[in-house]
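Hello,

Following up on my earlier ticket. Below are the two sequence lines again, exactly as submitted.
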Amino acid sequence: MAGSGWQQLATSAKELAGQSAGKARAVTATLSKAVAATGKEVRQLIVPSDGEAAPAAADGQHVEGPRQPLNGEDVYGFALELTAEQAAILERCHSKQERQRQRWQQYMQGSTSGGGSSGGELAADHQQLKKLCRKGIPPKLRQAVWLQLCGANQKRGQHQPAYYADAAMQGAQSQFAHQIELDVPRTFPNNSWVQSEAGQNALRHVLYAFAHHNPRVGYCQSMNYLAAMLLLVLGRDEENAFWVLACLIDDQDEGILYRDMYARDLSGTHVEMRCLRELVQHKLPRLAAHMDALACDMSILATDWFLCLFCTSLPAETAARVWDALLHEGTKVLFRVALALLKLHEPLLLAQDNPGELLRAARAVAAEAYDRDTLMKVAFEGVGSMPMERINSYRARKQREVDREMAARETRVNLQAAVREQGFVVQESEAVLLQRRTGGEPADSTQHASPARSASGSGVRWVSHLQALTSTIGGGVKDSIDRGRMRIAHRRAQSLGATAYEAPSP
Amino acid sequence: MAAPFVEQLVQSKLVLLGEMGSGKTSLVQRFVRGQYFENQESTIGASFFTKTLPEKHVKFEIWDTAGQERYHSLAPMYYRGAAAAIVVFDITHPASFERAKKWVWELRQNVANPGLIIALVGNKVDLADESRAVPEADARAYAAETGLLYFETSAKTNINVTQLFEEVADKLPKAAAPQQPAGGIQLSEQPTPAPRKAAACCS
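Thanks for your patience. The regenerated structure is below:
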């Protein structure tokens, strides 16, 4: 199965080889001259001049000449508004991409020569493939390479042919359908195809299908952007987009991303944010200290980077470069790119004096990261070593931390809800309330003022507070609290330790 | 030259909370930039805006948050230390009103600032005639009994948006110390008790 995939790739590569590189170079030269001539804003540049700047468009084929600023859109149809400097950067990246294209062709031919490529042959190519992916996959090859890299072809082959169509239909009835409907029209409003009727329908179907396919995750805001990006890169093919999305997020069979990134409480994202914080501490200690001084949590800067895999933060072609490496190497790439962005713009970030301005500055520099070659070079060569073992040991530690805090939060929320249902509002800190209601000794203020300080003990303390309360007030509230306790005992007995929650005594 | 004036500006942290698709980002865009986009992109994480109301001597530092329930665990980071909160619901969508009530409750539980201003906002009032599903009287009654400001707005047709933010500005304590922006995240939402005198207010 794997072999046939790579053979397809080789075929695509041969097609590519047939296209005229000379023509492409001529257009590059024309554009470069135009850039030099205008000097300022180059929006006009993007409009095709009626002469030689629009070669090979007539046959309707997607041609990989240096034509990306054509019609004011990049290769994926995102509106571009460039300064002259940015246009020049794009041109430079594009010429590099052309050279990469030849290397990919050689690689493809090599991997299919010698009769029937086996898995072993690909494994031998691993280092070369990694290098090629880091340097970027040419847009025309991306579709086939991504499907192969992330295992989407394989995953698709393990299901019935009608699996996708069926899931898309069933998903329309899911509890997430309403949320999906809210987000579909507001996904990439600056992309004309995504906004078209065909684009909206495709996006809706992919998200419906995923919500049905993986009901534990269902729909999480940000997946709308992932699905749209996949549709754009994968030739607008819904089913392919769906399977790559599944390969990224499905965690029961080793998804590419860390588990529970998108699940109900985003706990995986919290873990990743804390890991990134550790890495910044090691790699960029001045920035880490600055963020500490501003009380700026890493999740303020990087939540959307990790949930959207940079596709809402970086220009689309830069984001696609991140995904090229991500789909081959895994999540470590996200940490590398995040560190590269922070490192490249550290002086600017250090100059911001509150978290809000820090966020704005980080967003602004990311949105203008047209120089995908430099960003990826810094990501892979400029932020030092980052063994997966280290990330995994951070993750294990941070996961325990997050689990504890989430459990404490849930305990608290459930108890609050139980109390609220009865119309009894705990408006003040429990210590004061207890003191007033019971008329007794003021309780140990440190313990009572911060019931959730020790996460594992917090539930117990909450229960004891409320038990004390119920001894002095009506039975209705007590019933409600008992119900709350039972609910919590049921949900979290394992994570908090079953002994913490004995059944309420009648 | 402008120094005496600048000194009088009170920086106030303001947070927007509410169900997804209720129009939080659109309200901020309308207020800060005077813009409205029919398909406003959904907010992932949060966004930050500033807007100065010179005549009110207020500089708002506005945190606009993601609305989906599962982003809830991020919210404390944005509302901690807030001087004001705008809780938005969609008047055509009753579930968003219920969610707004939960937000109000959570703010009351978890924000230490006893002077926190909370405004409840029924947005999309331009759709009131054809598809209102939350009666204005219900929302007003709830706001009154809970001690909230109440506004019905339309970010789309620019109804009541400026008034909302100006009213919030008017209610802010004038001598308030500059608010620290977002603090660190703690998922357990532990309330930080307000420093206050015993038995200072009712319960």
